[in-house]
Design brief:
Layout (H helix, E strand, L loop, with lengths): L4 E4 H6 L1 H9 L4 E5 L2 E6 L15 H9 L6 H12 L3
Length: 86
């Protein structure tokens, strides 16, 4: 059987962060006053994030730089300068 979390009106006033954490975790929370249930907090349905296709980096690089390549010696010089060994 499903057991719903309960919080009193006092809990809402004094420790709302805890109740909010339950709701954020997908729990339904019954609100009580003088030990009688008076309301129910239900998490709002979340929309699924739209999946975006991964960009084709290789195609973009080819479009920008064409078939240009950097010679090994030139690449080593760039790397050495970035490391501060030059």
């Amino acid at each position: 059987m499903f057991h719903m979390k309960t919080a009193s009106v006092r809990d809402l006033r004094q420790d709302f962060a805890r109740v909010l954490a339950w709701i954020d975790a997908g729990e339904e929370v019954a609100i009580t006053m003088r030990r009688q249930a008076i309301a129910r907090l239900v998490p709002w349905p979340r929309k699924k994030a739209a999946r975006r296709p991964m960009p084709d980096i290789a195609a973009r690089l080819k479009k920008v730089f064409g078939s240009k390549t950097i010679a090994d010696k030139a690449m080593k010089a760039v790397m050495d300068r970035n490391r501060g060994t030059l």
